[in-house]
């Protein structure tokens, strides 16, 4: 049964899940798996977990595992705030493993992983369950005949210590030297991901010291968010196994380039006579987009300031999101423009019908990937519904444009602080309607809590406090 916000776990569904889990448990035990980590991502973007022995997987699938709802208002330092819908020591919810995504963890022998669906004790979907929220937004597009293909790029930096950041390699940006320096580690990582069922497209050294980036194949939205979590935890485990430490923080070292988590997304029409068709290619719109592809992209562009409260959710995010650092600090779009918040990627001639997509560059890995995609789909759907059109593309670094030209072309700087992003988020009726009151209020409360936590802190202090949390 596909989970929606109307889903209720009745006796028949519980029995079905229990039977599937019992079969899965027998298989895992035969592979010498001892435990299953059930994970979810909180509003601060931290992956939280509860673990069950394999022998308890059937019970967990049937009845869930208890967890306090208050983790949704935890800050990155594990302090907590309170919102109108959650907070304090009272209450419980149930974590149910998604058996379709249950997989042994090659990087953690003896362990398996399953993302958790979150329900109330009465069997209703919990209002802050990001996976259910993303399924709902995917379903709303599907009702109009649309599907989404999407993937996250994963950037991380490797350190030899877990106190200060000490780069584990010293070669130049994008240099083969960095592959040679950590060839055994990178090979082990690729092997672990392959054995875990992740389809890796490419791996390369990135710009900052000790930094790498990994790209994976596009999937449906929920699958893409699940894969983003799985990839990061695999990277973390393999890095530790090699005596090093991985950080996904938006700003590892103050003054240096940070880690992004760019989102690649394309809109596909399902009800064509010739099979699925990519709305980002083959049309008469800008750069070959169809009218629908353009409208979807324009919807995202319209809502970018508010979307930052979801996709760039930390105070540290705004140490990264600065002009002329390929972070996408301006609300504009452009063909292959890495300084635009929305980079349009056509792909090579001959594969554009498959490869054309939109890259959202202003997001980072402090974000909850389920909320990110749910919010992006809602913004894109609003553009579709309104038949929005894109402004002219920007073909230069917007920071180098005269201010009056930027104003005339509607090229706006994105919020320069988390407080500005939260203010835009709370005024965005489209996102509030899509995410619901409980999520909207909780996101705002957590963001304000982090703003207060770092009030008056220097960039170096913010980077140090954030470095090992995500």
UniProtKB/TrEMBL annotation:
Pfam families per record: Gln-synt_C
Keywords in alphabetical order: ATP-binding, Kinase, Ligase, Nucleotide-binding, Transferase
Domain GS catalytic: start-end pairs: 130-470
GO biological process, one term: glutamine biosynthetic process
Residues annotated as domain GS beta-grasp: 31-123
Molecular function per GO: ATP binding; glutamine synthetase activity; kinase activity
SUPFAM superfamilies: Glutamine synthetase, N-terminal domain, Glutamine synthetase/guanido kinase
Family: Belongs to the glutamine synthetase family.
PANTHER family, per database record: GAMMA-GLUTAMYLPUTRESCINE SYNTHETASE (PTHR43785), TYPE-1 GLUTAMINE SYNTHETASE 2 (PTHR43785:SF12)
Full protein name: Glutamine synthetase/guanido kinase
Organism: Actinomadura verrucosospora
